[in-house]
What we know:
By secondary structure, the chain is of the alpha/beta class. The chain is built from ten helices and six strands, in the order H-H-H-H-H-E-H-E-E-E-H-E-H-E-H-H. The protein has a domain at 110-263: Nucleotidyltransferase, domain 5.
Amino acid sequence: MTNNLDTLATTLYATTDDLLKQRPDLAPWRPAVGIAPQLTDAELVTLAVMQAMLGFTSEARWLRHARAHLGHLFPYLPQQSGYNKRLRKAADLLRRVTRILAASTSAWSDDVWVVDSTPVECGRSRETVKRSDLAGWAEYGYCASHSRFFWGLRLHLVCTLQGLPVAYALTGAKADERETLLDLLATESDLLGDRPGQTLIGDKNYFGRVFEDELAGQGVQLLRPARKGERERPGAPLFKPLRQVIESINETFKGQLDLERHRGRTPRGVITRVMQRILALTAAIWRNDATGHDVLRSLTAYDH
């Protein structure tokens, strides 16, 4: 493990620990009378981020690695089943810590966002599709970027140009990207409260007069490439390089944070594993921003 990752883990632990002392309501519920867990919630969050950073998709292998190499950071480590249960119960804590870290970065106030969705494959065999606990949520969909069909979910992301996740949602593979975006903005109504004139850049799938009118009503200016048969739209010369930004953010999740190898088998399991990766990217950007890095989304210093 690099000194940079060690420093990130220490800083993240201290920040989360202080946060939970100030806001104990953020922690997962547990009985007032009972045995206090030996692994604190702040340690659990830190352990989850380090697992995603180092590319361990197997929890059993991760805990073996942690026992061998991370004893100086984690005096106590649970067994795989205990870690699994604690982590899934902490999914909401991971989400809240993600938002708090993101909001404390300089990138949070950016007035340009990019929006896109990317496949989260959950199975390949017909038997998996028939027997999976994800059946009914996961479904067959098509990924135009890679010209392939898949069975699973879609991760919808609204990010800054630096790759900082601002809002996100997991839906079935066939969910309409426009409806999902509107639902996201409605759920996260505070996002646009202090952002008059926010610019949102998307691909050709984010189209429609009614859709654009709804965004405009919330103070959002949508920029997208013209569809076939449409006249040229404003900002067209910017779309090609910015499209590469969007694809690059997706590749960070898939290539460096192993999004497509999440190994989740239940709805809660998939949600937690996706949240681990969103928090890991947010924590890296948060740390890079604090230390003055030029490229905020760079994980090179932390992922090995």
